[in-house]
Automatic annotation (TrEMBL):
One of its GO terms (molecular function) is endonuclease activity. This is DDE superfamily endonuclease. Keywords: Endonuclease, Hydrolase, Nuclease. InterPro entries: DDE_SF_endonuclease_dom. Residues 11-22 have a biased composition (Polar residues). Residues 25-119 form the DDE-1 domain. The keyword Acetylation does not apply.
Length: 144
């Protein structure tokens, strides 16, 4: 991402700047935490195409590539494709490692991609129901 300011010596009459048609300051972060406080692997969605230069050359070269899921989308939005990737690469591994024998529910805001037919199908396959209305969620607290 290009910086918003350029530094140069006071009094200079020319400042060299660099900008590309692909530059953007937009990124979407998909973050999740369990009721126990464990964080799921974060997903960052950058502006670009899924098979473009950023996705092919820049993201794989980042040292943090194993700590997060990084993908591209033309507007840097969460869409059906990236929601499917989040389920496969963030939710499912979490459920496999920490969700054995525990009841799970996925609470999402009412964003369209969160409740598309394909997302509902993928979440149903995990056995983790999805909810958007907090009044329908029933939390219980253990006294042990």
């Amino acid at each position: 991402m290009q910086p918003k300011r350029t530094l140069n010596l006071r009094g200079e009459t020319t400042i060299n700047g660099r900008n590309t048609s692909n530059s953007t300051n937009r990124v979407t972060a998909s973050l999740a935490v369990s009721a126990s406080g464990r964080k799921l692997k974060p997903m960052l969605i950058f502006k670009g195409t899924s098979d473009g230069r950023i996705a092919r050359t820049e993201l794989p070269a980042l040292p943090q590539r194993n700590e997060l899921v990084m993908v591209c989308q033309e507007a840097a939005w969460q869409d059906d494709n990236n929601m499917a990737k989040w389920i496969d690469l963030c939710l499912v591994p979490y459920l496999q490692e920490y969700g054995q024998g525990a009841a799970a529910i996925l609470y999402l805001d009412a964003f369209t991609a969160h409740f598309s037919a394909s997302t509902k199908g993928k979440t149903a396959d995990t056995g983790c129901p999805v909810e958007s209305d907090p009044s329908r969620m029933h939390w219980t607290r253990s006294t042990h």
